[in-house]
Design brief:
The structure holds two protein chains of two kinds. By secondary structure, chain A is α+β, with helices and mostly antiparallel strands. Chain A has four domains: 22-118 and 171-260, Aldehyde oxidase/xanthine dehydrogenase, a/b hammerhead (Aldehyde Oxidoreductase, domain 3); 123-163 and 271-326, Aldehyde Oxidoreductase, domain 4 (2-Layer Sandwich), CATH 3.30.365.10; 343-425 and 549-691, Aldehyde Oxidoreductase, domain 4 (2-Layer Sandwich), CATH 3.30.365; 427-542, Aldehyde Oxidoreductase, domain 4 (2-Layer Sandwich). In chain A, strands 3-5-1-14-11-12-13 form a seven-stranded mixed β-sheet. Chain A has a five-stranded mixed β-sheet with strand order 9-17-16-15-10. In chain A, strands 18-19-24-25-28 form a five-stranded mixed β-sheet, with helices on both faces. In chain A, helix 10 packs parallel to helix 17 (666-678) and helix 13 (455-467) runs parallel beside helix 14. The termini of chain B are far apart. In chain B, a hairpin with a 2-residue loop joins strand 3 and strand 4 (73-76). By secondary structure, chain B is α+β, with helices and mostly antiparallel strands. In chain B, helix 2 crosses helix 5 (157-171). Chain B has two domains: 5-95, Ubiquitin-like (UB roll) (Roll), CATH 3.10.20.30; 104-172, DNA polymerase, domain 1, CATH 1.10.150. Chain B contains five helices and five strands. Classes of the chains: A alpha+beta, B alpha+beta. The interface between A and B is large, with 72 and 68 residues.
């Protein structure tokens, strides 16, 4: 059963500008910080001369490697302890001054001497050094079942192609920021983070402090999508170091240009994929080889080939991830990590196969539905993918899809395409505290944070539902390590992680009240006044999932209609119909919004977004929001989102994650629609006008099929 | 070993040039003292005057997060020199609703679910107010044009159109828009 379409409880603060983001905290005497950035691609820092910087009016301090040597060694401190430049733009120092202008001026006056070393600025410059990492994300990097090589040899049809996806940057609207100050041996850190507790842990470790002496606060977070975590930590630690030494609060706020370099990226992929079918359209083999970029200082590999292991029923599957180290920024997860590039390849290949087999693309997927997870050979906790296909196809009007690419609406050549999406459902450890106040209102506390997805609101809903009180009686406190430890905001896990903890807390609160003699007909407000006049509280704690005998995933089906300008090849997504099965939907208003946002992110990845690197220097070209194109309002298609309620009795509360699902599948759905419209198969992202200009077939007038309601 | 490399990106403006002036914001007078003459209106609003409703997100007029109204014209405050705004009437999100309540646009954003992380929201609210002030019944194309300078990444795009519909309907007095 779906929950209430409750409005965002912190929404009024956001529409009025009264929500205080981390960078808006204004301690007295605050200094501004700026970063000194490396101008070489690869090498060693052999000298830092800040004598000119120190003459800048307003200059207060400069920190660099020498000031960080005492920090505990870790991946988070390596880049500020070891004077090695791994990529252009890497910070080599930080200045602090009375004003932002003075800090930036001083940073520009810091003179840095380097010894350069040969660099690798693109993955194809070091293909012979590609290696297979042990892990891709949380999964083993390589997999093998059956004998795909033999099966491909005997297959009725083999579709074998290379698919490529570009580097993307997350670009939450709020740049990374930290405002920190010391109170004796304790430090207070306001920062834009997807993990207040994770940030606290890294600070405590780096500075060898008791965790309780570190307070990290992030009450409102201006988006993240994966980039507001670990990669930002070294520069934040430099800021803390400067604050301690100067005895003054300091703020460091990244520029938009630095958001291309210092906070991670979606890694580019080159995917060689072979899919084999028998004459009835059943998959007999998949081989999926992924090559991707990682940095020279860190290893990260998306789970790109995971979809090939378990999305469909297939007896013979081999997957492999390989990485090439380059002197470029470090990749990290970005919304729908792995599934976004992975489904682009697999779901494009299935579309190609459907055409060659003469089978409808939906029917081909239905025939290959996996009734259990063939990779781990375990059942799904629930899988409503078949229902997603049916509902979305009906609402889209897929049955009327013309076979050939002849449909024209004025100057627009029209095409329809579809694809499957999926994402694993995980949970993390989580504690939630529920307090019944003397006045009968409820305060709920959890040390997670709201990235914008609606965490404040769904937690309030969980507790209001469980206690039978109106939502208006519930106040939620998030984003502070003084609260009970909650999960990081990533991997679409927060809501599912909070649910069992919140339920345990409300159950415990009710049990305490019952023990104190709360009457059956008594309201909470009456009971607390009578039997616990100071108020009463209870905590719940839930553990991470450890699903061994069962596989938990969300699924969805995405259908798109695109128009391609017959003369100019401009590509427009005209409408998107999608059905998503994500367990129990707690708030359809927020959930639909998450799906639409996810789909828009996917449209950006498909048609617009590409971080371009200079192949000689490794520098990013066009590191600004004028050159890095993201979808705008004018790009919005018509959305029709169907939420498929699932009764998943295995998962606590039946709750699965939502946020990633729309950002995968959409890429192939658009590419397949473009092929349907133009006859051109584009196997790389982003797909741009220039990919279609030369191959547009002559315009043939035809009737646009009527849209079913 | 390469020769030491000198930085070339040092600001050329002389930051010793400071000025004092007053800005007229939301009907009040706000003195600014000892400010570098090159400071943007956005910087002065946020860093000197304690008005953080306009957000700093791109510093180049691409994202609209810093939208304010200057003498009746919607502008990106990151592209306006504060010292150049002396004598102008500046309206920011903080001044939208004198009684501390919500304007109809703000209420519609809430009702339609057009808010997520909120960082682009204040700029969008300013843009939608500006559009509806000049074009009370915008066409679909006019809406898309008017707010395409406001980037949102979360995103509420789909819902922001619904919010605009709500305002238009409610302002026209149609009962269909009541909730």
């Amino acid at each position: 059963m779906s929950g209430e379409r409750a409005r965002r409880i912190e929404g009024a603060l956001k529409v009025t500008g009264r929500a205080e983001y981390a960078g808006e905290v204004r301690p007295d005497g605050m200094l501004h910080a700026a970063l000194v950035q490396a101008e070489i691609t690869c090498g060693d820092v052999v000298g830092i001369d800040d004598s000119a910087a120190r003459h800048t009016p307003g200059f207060v301090d400069q920190v660099s490697y020498d000031d960080a040597r005492s920090l505990a060694p870790s991946t988070a401190t390596a880049l500020i302890r070891e004077p090695v430049v791994h990529f252009p733009g890497q910070p080599v120092g930080l200045t602090a001054a009375d004003t932002l202008l003075a800090a930036r001026t001083a940073a520009a006056r810091v003179r840095v001497d380097y010894v350069e070393r040969p660099s690798v600025a693109a993955i194809d410059q070091a293909l012979d050094e590609a290696y297979a990492p042990a892990m891709a994300g949380r999964i083993i990097g390589a997999s093998h079942r059956g004998d795909p090589a033999v099966a491909l040899t005997g297959a009725h049809l083999v579709v074998r192609n290379r698919y490529q996806t570009a580097v993307n940057n997350h670009h939450p609207m709020e740049p990374h920021v930290v405002v920190c100050w010391w109170e004796g041996e304790q430090v207070v850190v306001h920062t834009s983070t997807q993990a207040v507790y994770g940030t606290r842990a890294i600070i405590a470790h780096a500075l060898a402090m008791p965790a309780d002496d570190v307070r990290v606060v992030c009450r409102y977070l201006g988006g993240g999508f994966g980039c507001k975590g670990q990669l930002w930590w070294p520069w934040m630690l430099w800021t803390l170091t400067a604050s301690k030494r100067t005895g003054r609060p300091i703020r460091l706020e990244l520029t938009r240009a630095q958001m291309f370099t210092l906070v991670g990226r979606r890694q580019e992929t080159v995917q060689d994929l072979a899919v084999g079918f028998d004459a009835t359209g059943r998959l007999v083999a998949i081989e999926h080889d992924v090559l991707a970029q990682t940095s020279t200082h860190g290893e990260y590999c998306d789970t790109t080939a995971e979809v090939s292991r378990r999305l469909y029923a297939c007896p013979n599957v081999r997957t492999l991830h390989r990485l090439v180290r380059t002197n470029e920024p470090q990749p990290i997860p970005m919304r729908a990590p792995g599934t976004a590039p992975g489904t682009f390849a697999l779901e494009s290949a299935l579309d190609e196969a459907a055409e060659q087999l003469g089978i409808d693309p939906v029917e081909l997927r239905v025939r290959n539905f996996a009734d259990h997870d063939h990779d781990a050979d375990v059942p799904w906790s629930s899988n409503s993918l078949l229902q997603c296909y049916q509902v979305a196809a009906d609402r889209f009007g897929w049955a009327q899809r013309p076979a050939s690419a002849t449909v024209v609406d004025g100057r627009w050549r029209i095409g329809w395409g579809m694809a499957t999406t999926c994402y694993p459902a995980h949970r993390q450890p989580c504690r939630v505290r529920v307090r019944l106040q003397p006045d009968g209102t409820i305060v709920v506390q959890c040390g997670t944070q709201d990235m914008g997805s609606g965490t404040y609101t769904v937690l309030a809903q969980m507790v209001a539902d469980a206690l039978g009180v109106p939502l208006s009686q519930v106040t939620v406190e998030l984003g502070d390590t003084l609260l009970p430890e909650g999960p990081f905001s990533g991997g679409s896990q927060v809501t599912a992680s909070m649910f069992p903890a919140a339920r345990q807390a409300t159950d415990a609160l009710r049990a305490q009240l019952a023990e104190l003699g709360m009457g059956h007909d008594e309201t909470l407000a009456d009971a607390v006044q009578r039997i616990a006049p100071d108020g009463i509280e209870a905590e719940g704690a839930a553990t991470a999932n450890a699903d061994i005998d069962v596989r938990c995933m969300s699924f969805g089906a995405i259908f798109t209609e695109v128009g391609v300008d017959a003369d100019l090849a401009e590509i427009r997504v005209r409408r998107v119909t999608a059905a998503f099965a994500t367990g129990r939907v707690l708030n359809p208003l927020l959930t639909e919004s998450q799906h639409i946002g996810g789909l828009i992110g996917g449209i950006g990845m498909t048609l617009l977004e590409q971080t371009v690197t200079d192949r000689s220097s490794g520098r990013i070209i066009g590191d600004n929001l004028a050159d890095y194109l993201v979808p705008v309002h004018a790009d919005m298609p018509e959305f029709d989102i169907a939420l498929i309620d699932e009764d998943d009795t295995y998962l606590p509360g039946g709750v699965k994650g939502v946020g990633m699902l729309g950002t995968a599948g959409i890429q192939a759905a658009i590419a397949n629609a473009i092929h349907h419209a133009t006859g051109t198969r584009v196997r790389h992202l982003p797909i741009r006008i220039e990919d279609l200009l030369h191959e547009l077939p002559a315009t043939t007038p035809g009737a646009l099929p009527s849209m079913s309601e | 070993m390469t020769a030491p490399q000198a930085h070339s990106n040092e600001p050329t403006n002389d930051h010793d040039v400071t000025v004092g002036y007053s800005l007229s914001i939301n009907g009040g007078t706000h003195p600014v003292q000892d400010a570098w003459i090159g400071e943007s209106l956005l910087y002065v609003l946020r860093e000197r005057l304690g008005l953080p409703g306009a957000k700093n997100a791109c510093e180049q007029g691409e994202c609209g997060s810093c939208s304010v109204v200057l003498d009746g014209t919607l502008v990106c405050s990151c592209l306006v020199l504060a010292a150049d705004a002396v004598g102008s009437e500046i309206a920011t999100i903080e001044g939208l609703s004198a009684d501390g309540g919500l304007t109809d646009v703000q209420q519609a954003f809430l009702d339609a679910g057009a808010v997520q992380c909120g960082f682009c929201t204040t700029g969008l609210v300013m843009s939608v107010h500006d559009m509806l002030d000049t074009t009370p019944a915008p066409t679909d194309l006019e809406r898309r044009e008017a707010i395409s300078g406001n980037l949102c990444r979360c995103t509420g795009y789909g819902r922001i159109f619904e919010a605009i519909d709500l305002v238009v309907t409610r302002r026209s007095g149609s009962p269909a828009g009541a909730s």
